[in-house]
């Protein structure tokens, strides 16, 4: 049995200490945000800095979730994450499956155009002009339709479909299945690891929509949670979180900010553990196939 030298032991100990300190430094802001959001308002006003509250409270969350503006923004983000993810998976997977079929006549031309979009991005102004000409300004679909598919995702999905045995599609064709039926009844069920991986990418992207929402959405009632959160953090005093005529005691502003941050990151933290095993498998398969 090999025994480490004293120099190697010292080196490993130093690595463990350094990594431990980095973990504490990175975890502490999240811990502080979590603790402050659950602190009793009276205790927070007395101490200002709370590392472990004596009295826990959900008053900040109750207040936030009862306000129309915050509830609307959560609904908008939930709509983007669900509908956008489903639409993006449908468009990306169908295009990738078509490109994986060697008998597809325009396969090489489409592949060239897709790679071209990866190499040369149109930029902000052409995208804005496109959205405006489509009549999607101040429409929540402006955050979904232009982002239905991207070149990298389509190419990785195509590589995954290339790894599936060609005999499956051939057998389905002999049995009378059309290409579309083969795609959604045979290919998609076999591609759950890849769909879970890319679905997570799409869901996180739509949930975190921020810059596009700032460009295309003028009505604050259509803002996703990230835009409302940014306005709360920068200028909470001008954000009308309470409906007119509603009489409620407002928790401290800092507590509302911390609670809003936790609510904004919670869905991703909850969903990720359930798709982690599919995420690792699907991403690796789609990335190494030539």
UniProtKB/TrEMBL annotation:
Keyword entries, A-Z: Cell membrane, Membrane, Transmembrane, Transmembrane helix, Transport
Major location (coarse): membrane
UniProt record, GO biological process: transmembrane transport
Membrane-crossing residue ranges in chain numbering: 12-34, 78-97, 109-128, 140-161, 182-207, 255-275
Pfam families: BPD_transp_1 (PF00528)
Compartments, record wording: Cell membrane
Protein name: Carbohydrate ABC transporter permease
Keyword Transmembrane: yes
Membrane topology: Multi-pass membrane protein
Domain named ABC transmembrane type-1: residues: 74-274
């Amino acid at each position: 049995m090999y025994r480490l030298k004293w120099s190697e032991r010292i080196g490993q100990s130093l690595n463990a200490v350094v990594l431990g300190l980095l973990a504490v430094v990175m975890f502490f802001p999240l811990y502080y945000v979590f603790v402050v959001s659950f602190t009793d308002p009276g205790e927070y006003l007395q101490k200002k800095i709370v590392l472990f509250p004596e009295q826990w409270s959900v008053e900040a969350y109750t207040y936030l979730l009862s306000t129309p503006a915050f509830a609307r923004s959560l609904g908008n983000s939930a709509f983007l994450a669900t509908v956008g993810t489903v639409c993006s998976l449908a468009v990306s997977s169908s295009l990738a499956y078509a490109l994986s079929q060697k008998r597809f006549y325009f396969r090489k031309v489409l592949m060239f155009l897709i790679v071209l979009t990866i190499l040369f991005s149109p930029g902000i102004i052409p995208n804005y002009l496109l959205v405006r000409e489509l009549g999607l300004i101040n429409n929540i679909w402006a955050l979904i339709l232009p982002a239905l598919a991207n070149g990298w995702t389509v190419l990785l999905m195509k590589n995954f479909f290339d790894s599936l045995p060609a005999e499956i599609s051939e057998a389905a064709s002999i049995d009378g299945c059309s290409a579309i039926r083969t795609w959604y009844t045979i290919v998609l069920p076999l591609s759950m690891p890849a769909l879970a991986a890319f679905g997570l990418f799409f869901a996180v992207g739509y949930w975190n929509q921020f810059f596009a929402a700032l460009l295309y959405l003028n009505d604050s009632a259509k803002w996703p949670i990230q835009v409302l959160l940014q306005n709360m953090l920068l200028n909470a005093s001008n954000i009308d979180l309470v409906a007119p005529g509603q009489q409620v005691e407002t928790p401290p502003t800092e507590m509302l900010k911390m609670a809003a941050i936790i609510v904004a990151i919670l869905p991703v933290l909850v969903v990720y553990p359930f798709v982690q095993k599919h995420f690792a498998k699907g991403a690796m398969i789609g990335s190494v196939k030539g």
